[in-house]
Design brief:
Bound molecules: coenzyme A
Strand content: 15-25%
Shape: globular
Mean pLDDT: 92
Low-confidence stretches: none
CATH superfamily: Gcn5-related N-acetyltransferase (GNAT)
Strand order of the largest sheet: 1-2-3-4-6-5
Number of strands: 6
Number of domains: 1
């Protein structure tokens, strides 16, 4: 719970990274991040009281799917395997907390694709992902949202990746 104090810096780091990268990062308010931490749906990395990285879990389609979103590593801590550690912890935590859910993500990032692939995710079309409207609303703050809208949510610049615990056993 004490980690709630980090919500501003997490939100700011997501914003500034989105600006640098220019694409494919949904923005999140400090309030939204606080909710995730309170619900035990987040993994946060701290190094000597300094924010280092973050990722959170979202539940979609009445628990049929979960997604790991908002993966961010503070620039100073990049390139040392921290994103992989955070993602793996988030992945293992959600398999325990939501054992029946399929795990998915959408990303334009090579780092995330590599990590997901190693965890056992498979690339899929958006038709295999949740049709929960609330999930796709999260894309509204992405600068490519017009593409998603134009294709009626069939495709966009992100690659969909899915881990189905039933077929991966
Ligand atoms: C993407 C990000 C989370 C990576 O964090 P990181 O701690 O540096 O990543 P890791 O060191 O765990 O690297 C994981 C793998 O991705 C690769 N990788 C890391 N950054 C990369 C980059 N910018 N481009 C291509 N590959 C990258 C690593 O080489 C590693 O691959 P390997 O397993 O083959 O060695 C971080 O750069 C970041 O926060 N960026 C801004 C936000 C963002 O893009 N989030 C993802 C949204 S889709």
């Amino acid at each position: 719970m004490k980690h709630i104090n980090y919500s501003n810096i997490i939100s700011e780091t997501i914003h500034s990274s989105a600006k640098v990268r220019g694409t494919g990062i949904a923005l999140r308010t400090p309030q939204y991040i606080q909710k995730k931490i309170k619900n035990n749906d987040a993994v946060i990395a701290i190094e000597k009281n300094e924010f280092a990285g973050f990722c959170y879990i979202e539940v979609w389609g009445h628990g049929k799917y979960v997604a790991h979103s908002g993966l961010i590593v503070s620039p100073k801590f990049r390139g040392n395997g921290l994103a992989k550690k955070i993602k793996t912890l988030t992945f293992n935590h959600s398999k325990i907390k939501y054992p029946d859910a399929k795990i998915f993500g959408i990303t334009t990032g090579l780092a995330v694709m590599k990590i997901n692939y190693e965890l056992g995710y498979k690339p899929v079309t958006f038709s295999e992902l949740t049709d929960d409207k609330e999930f796709w609303k999260g894309c509204k703050t992405c600068k490519n949202y017009d593409v998603l809208n134009r294709t009626k949510r069939e495709m966009c610049l992100c690659t969909g990746m899915l881990y189905n615990s039933k077929s991966n056993k």
